[in-house]
Amino acid sequence: MMKTFAELNFPGRLIAVEGLDGSGKSTQIYLLKRWLEVQGLKVFFSEWNSSELVKSATSKGKKTNLLTPTTFSLIHATDFADRYERHLVPLLRAGFLVLCDRYIFTAFARDTVRGCPPEWVRGLYSFAGLPDLTFFFKAHLEVSLQRILDGRPQLKYFEAGMDLRLSSDPYESFRIFQGRLLEQYLAMSTEFRYKVIDANQPVEAQQSVLRQVVKESIDLSRYTASRA
User: Fold this and answer.
1) Average pLDDT of the segment spanning 173-177
2) What is the pTM of this model?
């Protein structure tokens, strides 16, 4: 059974945010990061699919549409394993608050929707500790879609699930694909004890909830830079 980093006796704590594309989770974890830093706490931020080791391979594969669901899954697992071993674990051992914009639950949801066996996907990440807090941002699909389009003119190919041939219309494909992802996330919410946030609420209201939960769940005084 997977354990949290607190249960594994790490001095640091890991906080993850999950949600559909356009749910606003990246904005929320950025605001949380700034709030923690202002208090003089030891904070490290990491985001999904950001390892320099595999970034170029992912980019090339996406551009040429050569990625099968299995290849996609393995590349993301390689990316995560590299960041986990080189950044996350050492910093958690050093007593940092580690903030992750997406964690293994992204793979559990996306890879399963793309057709990979759930047990196989989970096996790829069985080495990883669980977050000490996982926030899931639940937004209406139309709200998520509009937030994405407000920032750029069109949807990205994989973001809309176009590789799954769900619809020739990118917007309809997005609704179907993200809807299926939402089903996967909600099915995992109890098992992994997500703190579900109403992502349709104003940014300030959501952030207030995040800060309150973090203060109640983690003794922040243990993570001041002066204690390094």
Assistant:
1) 92
2) 0.92
